[in-house]
Amino acid sequence: MGSFIRLYEYLDMLRLSSDVSSLWLFFQDPVRCIPIRQKGKGMVICEVCVEGVMSALTAEAGGADRIELCAGLVDGGITPSLGTIQGVLDRVSIPTVVLVRPRRGDFLYSVEEKDVLIRDIRIARESGAYGIATGALTRDGSVDRPLMRRVRDEAGPSSLTFHRAFDMVADPMQSLEVLIELGVDRVLTSGLERNVPQGMEMIRELAGQAGGRISVMPGGGITADNVGSVVSTTGATEIHFTATTESKSAMAHKNTRPRMGGDRVLGEFELSLTDQEKVRRIREAAAAPEN
User: Fold this and answer.
1) Cβ contacts of residue 5 below 8 Å, gap of 6+?
2) pTM higher than 0.85 for the full model?
3) Which among 108, 155, 149 is positioned nearest to 131, based on CA atoms?
4) pLDDT given at position 53
5) For position 257, what pLDDT does the model report?
6) How far is it, in rounded angstroms, from Cα 234 to Cα 187?
7) DSSP, res 80
8) Virtual torsion, Cα 166, 169, 173, 174, nearest 10 deg
9) What is the pLDDT of residues 92-131, one digit of tens each?
10) Contact 56, 90 (CB under 8 A)
11) Neighbours of 121 (CB within 10 A)
């Protein structure tokens, strides 16, 4: 009886009660299809992207249905620390999706970075995270099938989101079919544009092609002023947003001269890497200081 109740609630949540073809999602893995919170008709699931324990608590207090936990939002988000993951999971009651992204920049990963990504997924899953958000591409802008198969296997019963790496694919419709084939639960996208309002038509096309086989979740630039238009235009049942605000430091003593980061903001296709020759030269110079 419990499975049938979950099935009814799942269909009601996605407003798919007339779409029998979408039942495969439930029967493939009922655990991943348990609704997050009982929603009324016309309601959508609000996933809030947060960068730490305090923001997670604030998002929950504000009514978030789910959070995506990350670090480094200024760089588009990277994997949070184990301490942050555990700290959030210990304190919030709503489902937590952990972003797994080994570095900023593009989504073409080395063998070593792929190993880190899989290890981080294991850590998040074993820590009790509800879901994983990750993604990887090949050099030509296709979904990295071999890696995403490993991701799906490592994530196990956890909900799996292919994050905004999707906005960098060469062929969005083909990539959507690949993700469905791989068993990904949802794709997070701004419609391949700078933000969701600019990409709503593409998101609607993707949702139409998905036909309930995968959730297409708009994310990027959603605000209280445009969310109504986003939902009505795309038909989204889940949305993703940050809802951030700036806050002044509580420090009484402030030395404003040093800067902890670089002065230049790198582009999406620029990487900051350690230079072996520079390391060698500085090491040699340090061993023979000037008199």
Assistant:
1) none
2) no
3) 155
4) 97
5) 87
6) 14
7) P
8) -110
9) 999 999 999 999 999 999 999 999 999 999 999 999 999 9
10) no
11) 25
The helix/strand/coil state of 186 is strand
d(C-alpha 174, C-alpha 181), whole Å:
11
Report, in angstroms and rounded to the nearest whole number, the Rg of the chain calculated over CA atoms: 21
The span from the CA of 72 to the CA of 246, in Å, is 15
Contacts of 71 (CB under 8 A, 6+ apart): 51, 52, 77, 78, 79, 80, 81, 84
Query: DSSP secondary structure string, 189-220?
Result: ESTTSSSHHHHHHHHHHHHHHHTTSSEEEEBS
pLDDT per residue over 193-244, tens digit each? Answer: 999 999 999 999 999 999 999 999 999 999 999 999 999 999 999 999 999 9
Tokens of 236: 């989204």
What are the φ/ψ torsions at residue 180 (nearest 5 degrees)? Answer: -65, -45
Let me know: does 10 contact 238? Beta carbons within 8 Å: no
Q: Which residue's structure tokens are 């799942």?
A: 10
Rounded to 5 degrees, φ, ψ at 142 are -100, 160
What separation, in Å, do the N-terminal and C-terminal C-alpha atoms of the chain show?
A: 83
* Nearest alpha-carbon partner for 67 in 97, 103, 24: 97
Cβ neighbors of 63 (< 8 A, separation 6 or more) are 46
User: For residue 44, which amino acid is it?
Assistant: V
Domains in the chain, please, with CATH? 1-35 (no CATH), 43-241 (3.20.20.380)
CA distance linking residue 268 with residue 62, whole number of Å: 31
Judged against a pLDDT cut of 50, whether residue 17 lies above it is answered with no
Query: What integer is the mean pLDDT of 246-260?
Result: 89
Q: How many Cα neighbours within 13 Å face the side chain of 10?
A: 22
Whole-angstrom distance, CA of residue 169 vs CA of residue 282: 40
SS3 of residue 157 by DSSP: coil
